Amino acid sequence: MRTRATEMFGIDLPIFAFSHCRDVVAAVSRAGGMGVLGALYFTPEELEHELTWIDEHVGGRPYGVDVVMPAMYEGADLAAANGEGLRDRLAEFIPDEHRHFVNDLLARHGVPELTHSDTAHFLLGWTDATARPQVEVALRHPIGLLANALGAPPADVVGQANACGVPVAGIAGSVRHARKQREVGVDVIVAQGTEAGGHTGDVATMVLVPEIVDAVAPAPVLAAGGIGGGRQMAAGMALGAEGVWTGSVWLATEESDTPPGSLEQILGATSRDTVRSRSLTGKPARMLRNDWTDAWEGADSPGALPMPLQFMLIADALRRVGRIRHPRLTPSPVGQIVGSLNRVKPTSQVIYEFMAEFGDTLERLNTVVRDD
Amino acid sequence: MRTRATEMFGIDLPIFAFSHCRDVVAAVSRAGGMGVLGALYFTPEELEHELTWIDEHVGGRPYGVDVVMPAMYEGADLAAANGEGLRDRLAEFIPDEHRHFVNDLLARHGVPELTHSDTAHFLLGWTDATARPQVEVALRHPIGLLANALGAPPADVVGQANACGVPVAGIAGSVRHARKQREVGVDVIVAQGTEAGGHTGDVATMVLVPEIVDAVAPAPVLAAGGIGGGRQMAAGMALGAEGVWTGSVWLATEESDTPPGSLEQILGATSRDTVRSRSLTGKPARMLRNDWTDAWEGADSPGALPMPLQFMLIADALRRVGRIRHPRLTPSPVGQIVGSLNRVKPTSQVIYEFMAEFGDTLERLNTVVRDD
C-alpha cells in the first residue's frame, strides 16, 4: 500500500499501533506497520531498557515512541518555577476529602493496605518534567516517530526531534487542538474520535477526521478511534486519513502483556461497556465501566481532581488494587471497539486480517459503482 | 449506484434523508435518493395533508414515512388497559417540583406566559397510541418505506406494512436493539451512532455499523450518525452498510423550514457544540447545547422525567419559547455534523456534492492500492 504516511515513515502498511508492550510494538513493525511504544509508565532507565530490546527485535523496521506532555495541567507554573520539590508542592493541592473517599472505597471492597508506601516512581506521570527525559532517551534510539498526547508539545521538543530526522505526531480530539499542534510544527495529526480508549474528546471519528483533514491540509492525518479491522481502516481512509492509529485491538494479542484479569474483562465486554471518566488522570479517558468508574460518578463522589493531582491521589490505590488484581476496581482504558475483541490472536494475524478485510472492502465499494 | 438498498427501494442513490419538512422529502426523492418524512409532530389529519402534497410533488419517486413507537415508555400498561383518559392518568405522574422548575426557568429568561393553554395536540407525541393512526394514514399513500424509531415496532405493524408491499426500517443504537428489530420482522436496520442528532445511543457509528452488519446479516443495514458528505457516505459503506441515513444536513437546505433563529445557530455551531440530553423527551437525544440543556444539567435540576412524561411536562414551555423564538431556550436536535453546516444550499446541490465526493473518495482509495 502507498499513502503519504507510508512514504513519510518508510513502512509497508499505514497501520500505527500504540501499545505499552514492547513485544506488540516490535511485532507490528516487523509485520509492516509501525509499532509505537507508550513511554508514560517508564522511568528514563526503564525506557532505555525497553527501546534497546525493541532495537534488537524489530529487524531494522521503523518504530515510534509516544510521550505525554499535557499542554495544560495544575501546577504547570510551579513546575516551571521550581523543578525541585514539585511533588510535595503539588501534594498540598489534594484535599483530605478526596483521600478519604479513595481509602473508604478500597476499604469497602476489602482491598488490603500497603505495608509501606513507595510512590516515588510515577507520582508525576503527567507532566512535561517527566516527559522531557523520556524524549532524550528516545532520540538516542533509531526511532521513526515521536508522538505526543494531550495537547501541543513544546515547540523546542518538535525541533529537537526533527533535528534528529524524526517526524512528530500529535493526537488531537478537536479541530482547535489540531491547529495548535500544527502551529508548533507537529508533522502528522492523529485525529482521534471519542470512541477511542484512553484520553479522548467528545467528537466521533466519523465527524472529526474530515474536519481535521480540511483544517490542517496538506498535513497528513491518521484516523483514530474505533479502528479495529479492515472495514474501519477503509472507513478512516475514506474520511481522508492517510492511515490509521490503533490501540485497543492490540490488548487482545498473544504478544501483549495485558494482565489476565483485565484480558478476561476485555474479551467479555460489549461496545456499550465503556465510559469516559476523569477518575484515572483528571482528564476524560475512555475505559471499561466498573466499580471504580461508577464510584467516581456516584452521589457521594467528591469529583476527580485536575491533572496531575488525580493520578497522584490514586497512585497508592492503584498499587493496592493492582497487587490483588481486583477486577472491578482496576481502571482499564480501552475504546468502544472492545466489543469486537473476543479472542486472543497473534499480532501478525491481526495485521493480516486488517489487510484482507481492507481489500475485500475496497472491492465491495467498487462493485457499488461498477454495476451502475 | 447499485446496492441492496437501491434495489430494494427502487432508488438511484442509497441516500436516505430524514426530515420533518415535506419540501426536503420531495426534493431528495426527486434527486434520486429517498426522502423520509418524520410524522411525529403531525396529527393524522395533518399527516394526510403533508403526504398528499408529497404525492403531488415527488414526481412518482419513492419516499418514506417515519413514525415513533417507543418499545418502552412510562404508562404503557395504562395505555394498553385504557385508551380513554390516558393523558389525564399520565399527567398525575408529573411532580410539582418539575412543573415549578420549568416555570421558574422560563420566568428567569423573561419568556411570556400563554394567554390560554392549548395542549390538546401533542401531549402524547411519544406513544404507540399516537403512532398507529399515523401508520394507517401513511399506508393509504404510495409510500416506499415505513421507518420506526425508539425500539422494535409491534410485529403486527410490520406485517401491516409488508402486506401493503412496504418494507420497514428500524433505527437501532446497539446490537441488542438491532436484533430485537429483526425478531419482529423489520426489513432494514438503520445503525445509528452516538454522533447522530435526536434520539441516539452511546456507541459511535465507526464501531456500531460493522457490529450490527455482522449481527443481522444478511439483512441490509444503513449507516447513520455523522454522515454529512461523500467521504462519510463512503466510510459508512466501507463499514458494511448498503447506504446512508442522514438528517442534520438537510436542516441547512433552501427547502427546509428550519426557523431562522435555529438556522443561525446551526450555521454557527462547531462539532463540539452538541450534547446528549434527556431534557426534550426523557430519552437521550443529541441537540445543540444551550441554556435549556444547561439548565437540565444544572445542580438545581430535578432531572428529566421518563418518556412520555417529560414531553408532556414541557409542552407548554416549548410553545412559550417557540412563540418568541427564544434562541437559547429552544431545544434544537442536531448531530455533531452540525460543525460542517456553514452555508444554506439547495437540496439538489447537497445530493450532487455527496455523489461527487463519494466518487473522488473511491478513486483516492483505489490509488492507495493501485500503486502498490
UniProtKB/TrEMBL annotation, chains A, B:
Which lineage ranks, top first, belong to the organism behind this chain? Bacteria, Bacillati, Actinomycetota, Actinomycetes, Streptosporangiales
What is the name of the protein in this document?
A: Nitronate monooxygenase
Oxidoreductase as UniProt keyword: yes
GO molecular-function terms, A-Z: nitronate monooxygenase activity
Q: Please name the source species.
A: Nocardiopsis gilva YIM 90087
Q: Which Pfam families match?
A: NMO (PF03060)
What the entry lists under Gene3D superfamilies is as follows: Aldolase class I
Q: Which UniProt keywords apply?
A: Flavoprotein, FMN, Monooxygenase, Oxidoreductase
| UniProt cross-references to InterPro entries, sorted A to Z | Aldolase_TIM, NMO
